[in-house]
Design brief:
The protein is an alpha/beta fold and 275 residues long. It has 10 helices and 8 strands. It has one domain: Rossmann fold (3-Layer(aba) Sandwich). Helix content is 40%, strand content 14%. The longest helix has 21 residues.
């Protein structure tokens, strides 16, 4: 706590991360239904771009690329700016006694799978919750998301071949400069599977390099099939008191196999070739 009151450093920070479309938003919103938790909002990519001066794949910040960011980029200036920014968001989101210590704070962003060492330098006490989902379901959902992104933002998504990079967020007028097989809408479904594999491998390495930092893993299938046991285990892993978490909308078991209707047999086989 500083002379100006508490900061984000006084909170128990939880970062929810996983491949896009594996349930990061669902897990964050579930945690937000706990009385001791404050969720700071959807992704905050534009804010992180502003605080750090680094590309964050954020449309509002007009970022195109989303490269990895490591400890080397965690300069004192960036750390101070990011901590100050998160602190201000938290104070706005949870206006309480300025002398009262904040509780558990949830940050969610599936775009930071290759930036966790940087985030841990900014928020050294942060714990990580990892989300998972069947690859075929993830691919089918991500393809639909990228279709909508063109309509909503006038941008296409391109996955660089560099395995350490996330998606490029490219103005549609510039799409012709990129490999069409790796650009969506319209790209090779195997590239979407490659992205899922890329994230999983990166998070596996992070877990090996930072033992104990990932405190819980939540599979979307487990949430749907055994909600009570899965959420109870999550709360226990985060040292939060038991509570009945509330999903933002009813969880539909039929959606677990929706990918079978969204992917052709050839596409399913193509996904299966991605190790």
């Amino acid at each position: 706590m500083t002379a100006d009151g508490w900061t984000i450093g006084d909170a128990d920070v939880v970062v929810v991360v996983g491949s896009m479309r594996t349930g990061t938003t669902l897990v964050a919103e579930l945690l937000d239904s706990h009385p001791d938790v404050t969720y700071l909002g959807f992704e905050l990519s534009e804010e992180w771009s502003d605080w750090t001066g680094l590309p964050w794949g954020a449309p509002g910040a007009d970022d195109v690329s989303c490269p990895p960011v490591g400890v080397a980029e965690a300069t004192p200036e960036r750390i101070a700016a990011a901590r100050d920014g998160v602190t201000r968001l938290l104070r706005d989101a949870a206006p309480t006694d300025p002398d009262a210590r904040p509780g558990t704070v949830v940050l969610k962003n599936p775009h930071v799978w290759h930036r966790l060492p940087f985030l841990c330098a900014v928020l050294p006490g942060a714990r990580v919750v990892r989300t998972r989902r069947d690859r075929r379901a993830t691919v089918a959902s991500l393809r639909r998301l990228w279709d909508r992104a063109l309509d909503q933002h006038g941008r296409v998504h391109h996955l660089p071949e560099d395995p350490d990079r996330c998606w490029d967020f490219v103005p549609a007028a510039d799409a012709g400069a990129y490999d069409p097989l790796r650009t969506f809408p319209g790209g090779d479904v195997g590239v979407l599977a490659e992205f899922h594999r890329r994230v999983e491998r990166c998070l596996d390495r992070f877990a090996d390099d930072h033992p104990g930092r990932i405190v819980a893993e939540v599979a979307q299938e487990d949430l749907v099939r055994d909600f009570a046991a899965t959420t109870s285990g999550l709360l226990a892993a985060l040292d939060l008191p038991p509570a009945s978490l509330v999903p933002p909308e009813p969880l539909d078991p039929d959606r677990l196999d929706e990918w079978r209707d969204l992917l052709t047999q050839d596409e399913q086989e193509r996904i299966g070739t991605v190790g």
